[in-house]
C-alpha cells in the first residue's frame, strides 16, 4: 500500500472550484502513525504483574534464548499431574500475567502449563527491530516449543499451543517451523483473515486517544492509512493463511460474540480455511475474555477439545455439546 504524501496539497471540488483542504494535523498524523506502528510491536515496558503464586499455584521460572537474535524470553512453568503440556501465548501489548485465569483452568485439568512473555513485552528482552516481526515472533514460539520438548521436567507427553488475538497468527504459522508434532492449537479472539483491514480497525480504536487535530478529517485518514501500511510492512506476513494440509494438528477457533476488535466475521473465513477445525462463538464475550463472560461453556468446550486432542478421557473430557463444528458468525 503506497503511503500518502503529507506534503502534497489535498483538494476538494466545491462550486466548480478546487480549494486546498486544510493540512492542519496531517504531518503530526504521519509522525504519530509511525510511532504507534512501532509501539504495536514494542509497547512501553509495563510493571510486573501477578504470577501463579497469587493463585496459590506451583511454579518455576525459565529462560529461553532465541536462536535468531539471542533475545531472552522469560516464562513460567506451572506443573500438572499428567505428561501433557499447554503453551500459552498472550496478546499484543499484554504479558503472561494476562493468561493467569487460563493457566489456573488448565492446571486444574491436570496439565503442565508454560506461559512466556513475548519479545518486547513484560520481562523478556527487547529487539528495537523494524521489520520481519511475524518471522521473529513465530521463530520465538518455535524456540519455546523446542525447549518444552527437551525439558525433562515436563513429562514428554503431547504439546498444545494456545494463542490469543495477535498470537493466534503466530500459533498457526509455527506449525511449519518445527519438526515435532503439535497435538492441538487453540486460537482465541483471532486470527483476522484480512490483516490489512484488522490493522485499520486498530487505528480506529486508537482514535479517541489521539490529539484533537488528528482525530478527524484528512488528518485521521492519513493517520489510519499510514498506521496500517507501516504495521503491515513491519509485520511482513507471508502466505496467509498458512497451508496446513499436511499436518494432523487439531485446530479450534474461539470468537467473541461481542468482540469489536477482531470480530467473529473476521475470524470465520480464517477458520473455514481449515474445514476440519472446531469452531465456536462465545456469545457474551468481548476480546480475549470468553473465560470470564461465558465461563462454563468456555471451560467445557476448551477442556474437552484438549482432552480429545491429547487422547484422554475422564474429568478433563466432559460430555459437552456434540456440535463440534459450530460455525463462527458475525
Automatic annotation (TrEMBL):
UniProt similarity note: Belongs to the AB hydrolase superfamily. FUS2 hydrolase family.
Alphabetical UniProt keywords: Hydrolase
Region Disordered, annotated ranges: 310-330
This protein's record includes keyword Thylakoid: no
Residue ranges of every copy of the AB hydrolase-1 domain listed in the record: 85-202
Annotated InterPro entries: AB_hydrolase_1, AB_hydrolase_fold, FrsA_esterase
One GO MF term attached to the UniProt entry: carboxylic ester hydrolase activity
Protein name: Alpha/beta hydrolase
Biased segments, Basic and acidic residues type: 321-330
Amino acid at each position: 500500500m503506497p503511503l500518502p504524501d503529507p506534503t502534497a496539497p489535498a483538494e476538494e471540488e466545491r462550486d466548480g472550484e478546487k480549494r486546498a483542504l486544510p493540512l492542519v494535523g496531517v504531518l503530526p498524523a504521519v509522525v504519530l502513525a509511525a510511532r504507534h506502528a512501532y509501539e504495536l510491536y514494542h509497547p512501553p515496558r509495563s510493571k510486573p504483574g501477578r504470577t501463579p503464586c497469587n493463585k496459590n499455584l506451583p511454579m518455576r521460572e525459565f529462560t529461553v534464548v532465541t536462536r535468531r537474535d539471542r533475545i531472552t524470553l522469560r516464562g513460567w512453568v506451572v506443573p500438572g499431574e499428567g505428561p501433557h503440556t499447554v503453551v500459552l501465548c498472550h496478546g499484543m501489548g499484554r504479558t503472561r500475567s494476562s493468561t493467569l485465569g487460563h493457566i489456573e483452568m488448565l492446571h486444574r485439568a491436570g496439565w503442565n502449563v508454560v506461559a512466556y512473555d513475548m519479545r518486547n513485552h513484560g520481562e523478556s528482552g527487547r529487539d528495537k527491530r523494524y521489520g520481519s516481526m511475524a518471522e521473529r515472533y513465530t521463530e520465538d514460539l518455535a524456540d519455546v516449543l523446542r525447549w518444552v520438548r527437551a525439558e525433562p521436567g515436563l513429562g514428554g507427553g503431547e504439546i498444545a499451543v494456545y494463542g490469543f488475538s495477535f498470537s493466534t497468527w503466530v500459533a498457526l504459522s509455527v506449525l511449519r517451523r518445527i519438526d515435532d508434532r503439535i497435538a492441538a492449537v487453540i486460537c482465541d479472539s483471532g486470527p483476522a483473515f484480512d490483516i490489512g483491514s484488522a490493522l485499520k480497525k486498530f487505528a480506529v480504536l486508537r482514535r479517541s486517544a489521539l490529539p484533537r487535530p488528528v482525530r478527524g478529517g484528512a488528518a485521521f485518514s492519513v493517520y489510519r492509512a499510514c498506521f496500517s501500511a507501516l504495521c503491515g510492512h513491519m509485520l511482513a506476513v507471508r502466505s496467509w493463511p498458512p497451508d496446513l494440509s499436511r499436518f494432523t494438528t487439531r485446530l479450534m477457533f474461539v470468537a467473541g460474540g461481542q468482540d469489536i476488535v477482531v470480530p467473529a466475521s473476521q475470524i470465520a473465513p480464517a477458520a473455514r480455511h481449515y474445514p476440519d477445525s472446531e469452531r465456536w462463538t462465545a456469545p457474551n464475550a468481548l476480546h480475549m475474555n470468553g473465560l470470564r463472560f461465558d465461563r462454563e461453556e468456555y471451560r467445557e468446550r476448551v477442556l474437552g477439545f484438549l482432552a480429545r486432542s491429547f487422547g484422554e478421557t475422564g474429568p478433563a473430557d466432559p460430555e459437552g455439546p456434540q456440535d463440534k463444528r459450530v460455525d463462527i458468525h458475525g
